[in-house]
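ok so I'm stuck.
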Amino acid sequence: PEAPGAAGPEVDLFLEQIVIASSNWAQSMLLNSCRQRRRLRRGLDDWANIYQHALNADMSEEFVAFAKRAQWAWTPPKDEAEAMNEFYPGPLSTWVECQTAASEALHLLLGFELELYQPSEYAMVYWYCSVLLGVQRVTSQVMHSYRCPASGASKASIALPAKPNKKGNKGRAATPPSPLPDASTARRQAGLIMDAVRTELLSSMCLGLVRLQLALKVAGIVPDPILTFNSERERFDQRFAAFHTPPLVRPEPMGYGQYLEAVASADDMAPEQLLALAIESFAMVRRSHAQIMAQVASAHPQMSTAVPPDQVTEHAALDRIAAANTLAANIVIRSLASLPKVEGEQQQQQQH
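replied:
not stuck anymore, here's the structure
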């Protein structure tokens, strides 16, 4: 075992700061929704500071040597290696970015519970939630790619004997089985995958709700609000000002222009098309939920430990919400299909 402080002073300082931030987060979870939301917003200053410590620790020679001795390797996927090395230089900073995005997303979602948003703001809030949940999904996948050390049994495995070929000559030695991680590492890896799946479910749900809100707006069912004192841009800046105030580097704060670019295609689409896209997003949530529950029911050893009971309950609730939203979208599609016919009959009655 390594002596205390073997990873270097930068890592020790990082761990000290993490203890403070984690304690504040745990305390905020014990508060009511209003105080919890306020505590999460104030905690963003801590996460911004910790990210800088994480970058210093990731780049320190002591930590790199420590990870090498422990047989851990930071190996992002090959097809994304260049982008990963630019935005995810190491495991500590990647973990901090994931936790920061989780705090920001929870901060926004608590606003719905507290009824802080007007219906005209739902689309922008759901869009920002989808972005933050996407950050959580990607960072969880990146951390899962962190190559872990093999278990003791796998390290001691020897090469398999060579198989003779058809001519009786001795062939090449058979490839030994790939090393397996130990039990604790396997649980950690499975937990990261489940975090990625969970955030993907929530992101798909938020994306479907964005499309649903835009469809209602294009159809004229939800009219444009009368903004007496400020514009939509100012409202956007006010809603997400907490993410711009601290010197946050990652996740990158989103601006109003990026939101407009994301929803610009909705102006050229019919409401029925947007509703169909929303239904597709809700269907993706339901399919993923069914796959997860099938794996849990099969008593897969890693899945049984990676999916705690509270997440099973959350996934079931998301499935019910997706089903209800699908039904609502289908009802809107049918009502929109009947509008031209009703208008035609009214015109005929006026002519008579």
